[in-house]
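Subject: sequence -> structure tokens, single chain

Hey, anyone have a minute? Need the predicted structure for the following. Not urgent.
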Amino acid sequence: MTLRNQVLIWIAFFVVLIGLLYLFRGILLPFVVGAALAYLLNPVVNQLQRLKINRVGATSIVLLFVLALVLGLFFMLVPLIGQQVVGLIQRAPGYVTDLQALFARWSPEVNEWLGPERAAQVQTSISDLARQALGFIATLPAELVNIGYTGATVIGISLLTPVVAFYLLLDWEGMIRGLQGLLPKEHKAEINGILGDIDKSMAGVIRGQGGVLLIDAAFYATALSLLGLNFGLAVGLIAGLLSFVPFMGFAVGFSLSIGIALVQFWPNWWMVVAVCAIFMGWQFIEGNILYPKLVGSSININPVGLMFALLAFGALFGFVGLLLAVPLAAIVGVLVRYGVAKYKASALYKGPNGDLDGDVSAA
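Reply:
Had a minute. Here:
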């Protein structure tokens, strides 16, 4: 088989895959979450098997522990979080009005400092930013209904996801062996190398970035609550859970927190500065310690490419697309890097006489 035919076959395979994802996008969520859960927990199940526990028993123990943990956190935290989110949604229009009144009170000083025209522009910009940030929270329930995840749907997904994860975990090794048996023997070693890079990248996405996201949510929620910020728990969780989109979690959380802090603590500037310090300090820790340690260079995706993937897959597949965007972008990144390496090793890049750079320098 020629290289051209191989490329055409792989392109056709990916086109069919995207088509199937689009066709079944409405029912994919429990399978996507279940597969991610199985991938995440498979190393733990393997460790239990090394302790002479059979696969069924190890899978049951791990999933029961995870379900007990999730249900415990659900019953402990959801009532409190729900109360704060509902309160924040109800209070959002009042916060916008209070901020506008606060800015109007500052107008003489700001006009004297910046000039009337520039001061009016700054006031309008800040008011619009506060309205958009607080309005984002108010639209969340409607958005969830629009994408079809009502209470009954969420319950159905919650029941189906553990079942999917259980059966995938139970036969994980068998599925891997089956896929290995389908690989063309001539290129098996090379394909396994690519799959190893994809596995490393996926581990960075699901385990590494997922860990960073949860740590972000826990830190912001705890720090803002201890500071005494109104609805600090809800704002912190929103900031942390939105951090899978580059800079979005920080931007939304920072805007919400500063807006609420100005209304709540004014004229105590130190409390507003403290809120600022929480976000700025944690951004430094996340960028220089957490992200390099937990994720490292395994994902290696440009933030602009990641944002494009999130928007594109979100537009095509809805909420499922948002879940799939980062893993698929990581896979595409591995394949692109492999393609570039093959191209640079080919005669198309080097020329018919080998490395042209060497020839030119010699001449």
